[in-house]
Amino acid sequence: MPVESPEDRTVEVLGVAEALDEELLSLYFENKRSGGGPLVSVEKRGNRAIVVFEQAEAAAEVLSKQHHVLNNIQLNVRKAATKDQHRLLLRGINPSTSTEMIELYVENMMGLNVTDYTLCPLPGRDFILIHLSRPFSKGLLIPCFSKT
């Protein structure tokens, strides 16, 4: 049996009510009514949830259904975004900030050298795409703020 990637087994659910708990979401997506099946995990993040199935076939079946309604609320289900571990999007940049300042920020926050990345700024926009020479990992980031 071929190994299925986590991306093939994962769906993103939008429009999740705050009061809806993960257990009810789990029960719905494990039920054949949703087209789903056994789950690995459900993680609620505000008004959306990430659902990971044991089999890609269950995720595909859920995605093929047009309507998902739970507690009289229409849920929007879509394929979860794929993650490119060589790219990061830096948002909220003042368009007048110099490239040199952004480079210093990236190098200091991520502990990188100038040869470890490439910046791809878009003129007049508040974001910059960062191409990394090695895959991104959570340990790569240095926290910039701490709560005291």
TrEMBL record:
**SUPFAM superfamilies named among the record's database cross-references:** RNA-binding domain, RBD
Listed CDD domains: RRM1_2_PAR10 (cd12547)
Tell me one GO molecular function of this protein: nucleic acid binding
A Pfam family the protein falls into: RRM_PARP14_3
Q: What is this protein called?
A: RRM domain-containing protein
Question: What organism does this protein naturally occur in?
Answer: Monopterus albus (Swamp eel)
Lineage of the organism: Eukaryota, Metazoa, Chordata, Craniata, Vertebrata
